[in-house]
Recover the amino acids of this structure.
């Protein structure tokens, strides 16, 4: 039964790929049915009606046994519910959003592939199985970012995303190999991990595995792909690049926490990576004008929070924030998508304005999402962020202050885009003529905004699923600090952008994203490009020309010289031949 | 009669029919199809649990004074059977994608069949003489196929390829002679199983193994384009007609690896151990040097040619470390690389033919005009960069696992290859199929109807082996255990 | 004079061989050179038969049969080549046929 989780979306993806592409309606139906089925199965699992099936052996060789099985512990259950639930809503939303796209059959097929891979990561029982689906998630993300492949920017963004993830996966794979070589298994087996304890390889393995998360969850320095990934259709941004796939890195860290906790050094590196990412991304977000890019950087910043939580040894806080963030960030993206849909894909917030009045449902739901993200008390984001700040305050005081400052920035930039995009006067024709989106798009917004409000309360049961509240050591200073930060951010945002018709602050460093793209262009790309060109030259001229053709030249030179002996006179040949034969005879028998 | 002999006879008979004037493409297709089905049947009948050789046929062929007897001895075990399957499948696909209207069609198809016949013969032969002769035999049609039907610069390229491979084979021959030379005279035999058994019981002194192994490694290495003996490959493949490139890169090239696996490594383990540092150093050349060179390529077929050289680095790594995990991975990756290379070269052929252009700078946006071909290229690319779900992934993975314990640092460098290959392969996807569609390509047509079947076959094989490598690994495992006694 | 010994045969064979060789080297006409080649072959045959006779073994004579057969075939091919060469070049002089040398 539980296999349905994987099989339903996989079958859907396969059917659409092989046969259904000419029939968009049928493809949509199959794909939505598959995601619905996956959600129902996840519900069944969460309610304990569906159990884990026996594992299948995928590779069974001496020294290496790789299984395809299912872990359905509380961690996986929570994640499954969140992922399949959000995915189902986004499938429905896409019905409206993609209604006029000629390639929508393909779109739904790729969504199904993504869903299957994501579920695969969640239920993995071992490192290799996780790596398999991990890579497949990368592939489906590549396909979906490049969905509009005829756009150069989308095609480039897809490639960039895949490559940045590959670099992370390189480390991840090495980490898996290190773990296997030391512990003798690839299973998620805390018992076996004791082989690493006290070993100098423990931090090495932990940090290599963390590389996978750095790539997938867009942490500095491999984050450059995430903002560009917004070239994909907005439902994709909502599903993959906000709610689920990018969170997979954090989920992975929680899943393999039994390795990470063996090495305090590694945990500290992880916490700092997360904290720095959160801060830098929030700073960049304050100066972006593309609504989807602002959301992308805010996603990156929130992921930084989660990684920080893992680094502070609080997987509960990380998973809690992951879940609530999944809800409200999907909500924000879909709200933004609804606006883009109405404005014919105008993404610049300075070319919007006053949209709130034309699209009340979108405005209200977006506002709820923004408030949740900003951490307004009473909404889900407040509770989960609070947990993370508590964890940081316990373990890394410096990072706590950084995180609190980030919270202020978050409130600031969310106020900014909400005010600029939805309030004020329409600044373009398109904004003036905006219309509310159809109900298939509105319905998911409503469901998600309800979730974004209530998901933080204990009756909703996230923390219950995660195995109880962390009661120890609540610092009363933390909620004070975070409240102050949120209020400061809100006020600053409201004052600066209350009635603004154009940008009031210009900080090029933030606007140009700390010049990461430029730095990479000048170092990594140029370096690789030049060395590739140099080696190609060496291969062609040194190996190919000097060695190979040089060898050929020496041989043919010898041939040319010997040719002089061959004057073409038959009788001369016969004479030489006889002379030679006589000489040999003499040599052999002459003595 | 062994079904393996029938495989050879079917192709020989088809060549005969074509020379007698039968329709070349139809006859070759029927023959290749028959062979594919027959090899599937052999696979189904193959007793995976039992080690050793099956479907054996063994009788005397010729006995010359002073030389060991040459026997016609064929058979397959878990190592060669996957290669036989690969050969028949790629042959079918290569013949199917070949254009029916081509100059000197009957010769063209005869050479394709000859090429396939040589490869098949080499894989099923258990006699050193035939093992060598069949491969040598297959080089002739390769030369002719490139020389007569090749694209740019074909005369120079085919000559270079033939001389290079001929020289490699010569070194190989010297290696075989040197190998037999160090075996005591009364035990000399061309029979591979007997030789294996004898040398396992009575291993040679390492000093005796040094020279023969060196010669064999250079000989086989040249045939598999081990760095720096690779210069023949990239431009040879770039110029060859698609079907010939598919058969050579996909199938015949595997002969060198198969030879290392079947002859050089098991018979001369001491030599292998002694020369291992060299092989490890050279394979880094394949991965890093050639990998980066591939990135700099500006034309599709040349890039595929270089990438096919680069991927040999993984295989050498698996061979050099010589344990059950790595060797199983090598056999799997040999098959997988054969399939994916064939798929990619077939697509390159379609692009060359339909768009009339192979330079990246002049191509673009073709996914809109030829969606099916684009999908095939994507699948081939993903396979080639080692994405899970396609056959190359488990092969590479097993090789990495196999080599990690003894060579962690080197393996780490080699694993970087998965990033390099993603860089150039996705660049090709981007340059050829994504982005703007230039004006001069606006009328390019897609592959339609039954012409899609060969692509579908190759993709299906990649998918099946990728999702469930156990299907093949069971068979491979029996070979690895039985033949190599590796655990 | 008694019965001829092996030595006699070998001397005769050597003489024949030398005559043939000299012919091949000295003469210019391809046809004559060809006939001289045949003389050399038969010189070898003679020594083979002689050896066979004096060592009481039949192998040598068997080999001679092979040589005769092959020589006949060779003559047929060689003469055919000569005739077609003559048709093309209108000559059978060895010096004038240098097409392989360029």
């Amino acid at each position: 039964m539980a296999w349905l989780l994987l099989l339903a979306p996989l079958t859907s993806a396969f059917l659409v790929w092989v046969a259904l592409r000419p029939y968009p309606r049928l493809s949509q139906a199959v794909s939505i049915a598959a995601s619905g089925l996956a959600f129902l199965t996840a519900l069944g699992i969460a309610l304990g009606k569906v159990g884990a099936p026996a594992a299948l052996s995928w590779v069974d060789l001496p020294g290496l046994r790789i299984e395809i099985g299912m872990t359905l512990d509380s961690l996986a259950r929570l994640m499954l519910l969140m992922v399949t639930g959000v995915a189902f809503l986004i499938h429905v939303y896409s019905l409206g959003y993609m209604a006029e796209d000629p390639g929508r059959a393909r779109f739904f097929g790729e969504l199904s592939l993504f869903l299957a891979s994501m579920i695969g990561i969640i239920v993995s029982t071992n490192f290799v199985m996780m790596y398999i689906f991990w890579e497949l998630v990368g592939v489906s993300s590549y396909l979906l970012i490049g969905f509009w492949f005829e756009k150069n920017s989308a095609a480039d963004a897809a490639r960039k995303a895949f490559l940045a993830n590959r670099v992370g996966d390189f480390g991840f794979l090495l980490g898996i190999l290190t773990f296997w070589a030391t512990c003798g298994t690839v299973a998620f087996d805390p018992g076996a991990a004791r082989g690493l304890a006290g070993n100098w390889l423990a931090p090495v393995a932990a940090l290599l595995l963390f590389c996978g998360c750095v790539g997938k969850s867009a942490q500095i320095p491999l984050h450059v792909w995430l903002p560009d990934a917004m070239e994909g259709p907005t439902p994709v941004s909502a599903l993959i690049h906000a709610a689920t796939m990018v969170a997979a890195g954090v989920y992975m860290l929680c899943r393999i926490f039994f390795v990470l906790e063996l090495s305090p050094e590694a945990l500290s590196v992880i916490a700092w990576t997360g904290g720095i990412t959160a801060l830098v991304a929030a700073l960049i977000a304050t100066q972006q004008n593309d609504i989807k890019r602002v959301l992308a950087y805010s996603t990156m910043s929130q992921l930084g929070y989660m990684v920080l939580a893992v680094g502070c040894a609080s997987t509960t806080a990380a998973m809690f924030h992951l879940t609530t963030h999944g809800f409200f960030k999907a909500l924000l993206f879909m709200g933004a998508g609804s606006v883009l849909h109405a404005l014919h894909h105008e993404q610049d917030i300075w070319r919007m304005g006053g949209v709130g009045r034309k699209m009340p449902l979108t405005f209200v739901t977006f506002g709820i999402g923004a408030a949740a993200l900003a951490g307004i008390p009473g909404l889900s984001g407040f509770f989960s962020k609070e947990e993370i700040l508590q964890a940081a305050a316990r373990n890394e005081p410096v990072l706590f202050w950084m995180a609190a400052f980030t919270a202020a920035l978050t409130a600031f930039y969310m106020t900014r885009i909400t005010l600029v995009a939805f309030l004020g006067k329409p600044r373009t024709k398109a904004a003036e003529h905006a219309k509310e989106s159809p109900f298939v798009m509105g319905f998911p917004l409503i469901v998600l905004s309800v979730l974004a409000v209530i998901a933080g309360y204990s009756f909703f049961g996230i923390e219950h699923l995660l195995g109880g509240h962390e009661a120890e050591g609540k610092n009363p200073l933390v909620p004070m600090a975070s409240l102050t930060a949120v209020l400061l951010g809100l006020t600053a945002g409201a004052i600066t952008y209350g009635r603004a018709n154009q940008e009031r602050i210009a900080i090029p460093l933030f606007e140009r994203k700390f010049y990461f793209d430029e730095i990479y262009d000048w170092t990594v790309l140029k370096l690789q490009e030049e060395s590739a060109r140099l080696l190609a030259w060496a291969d062609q001229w040194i190996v190919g020309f000097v060695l190979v053709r040089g060898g050929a030249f020496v041989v043919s030179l010898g041939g040319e010289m010997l040719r002089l002996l061959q004057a073409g006179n038959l009788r001369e040949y016969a004479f030489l031949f006889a002379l030679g034969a006589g000489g040999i005879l003499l040599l052999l028998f002459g003595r | 009669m062994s079904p393996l002999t029938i495989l050879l006879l079917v192709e020989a008979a088809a060549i005969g029919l074509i020379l007698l004037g039968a329709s070349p493409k139809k006859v070759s297709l029927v023959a290749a199809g028959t062979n594919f089905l027959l090899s599937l049947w052999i696979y189904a009948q193959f007793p995976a649990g039992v080690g050793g050789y099956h479907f054996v046929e063994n009788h005397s062929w010729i006995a010359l004074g002073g030389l060991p007897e040459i026997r016609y001895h064929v058979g397959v075990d878990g190592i060669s059977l996957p290669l036989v399957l690969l050969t028949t499948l790629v042959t079918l696909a290569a013949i199917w994608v070949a254009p029916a209207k081509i100059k000197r069609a009957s010769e063209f198809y005869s050479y394709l069949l000859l090429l396939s016949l040589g490869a098949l013969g080499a894989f099923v032969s258990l006699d050193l003489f035939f093992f060598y002769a069949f491969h040598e035999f297959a080089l002739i049609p390769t030369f002719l196929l490139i020389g007569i039907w090749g694209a740019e610069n074909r005369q120079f390229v085919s000559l270079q390829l033939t001389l290079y491979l001929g020289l490699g084979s010569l070194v190989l021959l010297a290696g075989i002679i040197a190998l037999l030379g160090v075996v005591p005279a009364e035990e000399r035999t061309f029979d591979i199983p007997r030789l294996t058994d004898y040398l396992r019981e009575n291993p040679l002194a390492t000093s005796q193994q040094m020279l023969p192994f060196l010669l064999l490694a250079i000989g086989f290495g040249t045939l598999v384009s081990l760095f720096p003996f690779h210069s023949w490959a990239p431009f040879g493949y770039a110029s060859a007609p698609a079907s010939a490139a598919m058969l050579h890169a996909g199938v015949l090239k595997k002969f060198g690896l198969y030879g290392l696996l079947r002859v050089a490594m098991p018979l001369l383990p001491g030599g292998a151990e002694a020369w291992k540092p060299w092989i490890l150093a050279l394979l880094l050349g394949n991965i890093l040097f050639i990998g980066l060179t591939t990135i700099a390529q500006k034309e599709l077929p040349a890039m595929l040619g270089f990438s096919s050289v680069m991927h040999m680095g993984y295989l050498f790594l698996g061979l050099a470390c010589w344990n059950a995990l790595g060797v199983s991975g090598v056999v799997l990756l040999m098959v997988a690389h054969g399939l994916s290379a064939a798929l990619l070269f077939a697509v390159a052929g379609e692009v060359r033919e339909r768009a009339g252009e192979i330079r990246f700078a002049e191509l673009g946006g073709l996914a809109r005009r030829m969606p099916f071909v684009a999908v095939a290229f994507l699948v081939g690319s993903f396979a080639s960069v080692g994405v899970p779900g396609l056959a190359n992934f488990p092969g590479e993975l097993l090789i990495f696992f196999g080599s990690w314990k003894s060579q962690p640092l080197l393996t780490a460098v080699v694993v970087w290859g998965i990033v390099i290959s993603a860089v150039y392969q996705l660049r090709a996807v981007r340059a050829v199929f994504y982005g703007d569609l230039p004006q001069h390509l606006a009328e390019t047509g897609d592959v339609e109807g039954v012409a899609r079947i060969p692509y579908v076959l190759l993709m299906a094989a990649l998918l099946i082996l990728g999702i469930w490598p156990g299907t093949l690994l069971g068979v491979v495992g029996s070979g690895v255990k039985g033949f190599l006694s590796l655990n | 004079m008694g019965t001829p010994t092996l030595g006699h045969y070998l001397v005769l064979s050597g003489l024949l061989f030398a005559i043939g060789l000299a012919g091949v080297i000295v003469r210019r006409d391809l046809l004559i050179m060809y006939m001289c080649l045949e003389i050399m072959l038969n010189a070898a045959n003679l020594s083979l038969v002689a050896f066979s006779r004096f060592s009481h073994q039949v192998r040598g004579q068997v080999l001679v049969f092979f040589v005769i057969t092959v020589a006949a075939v060779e003559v047929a091919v060689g003469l055919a080549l000569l005739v077609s060469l003559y048709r093309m070049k209108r000559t059978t002089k060895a010096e004038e046929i240098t097409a392989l040398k360029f």
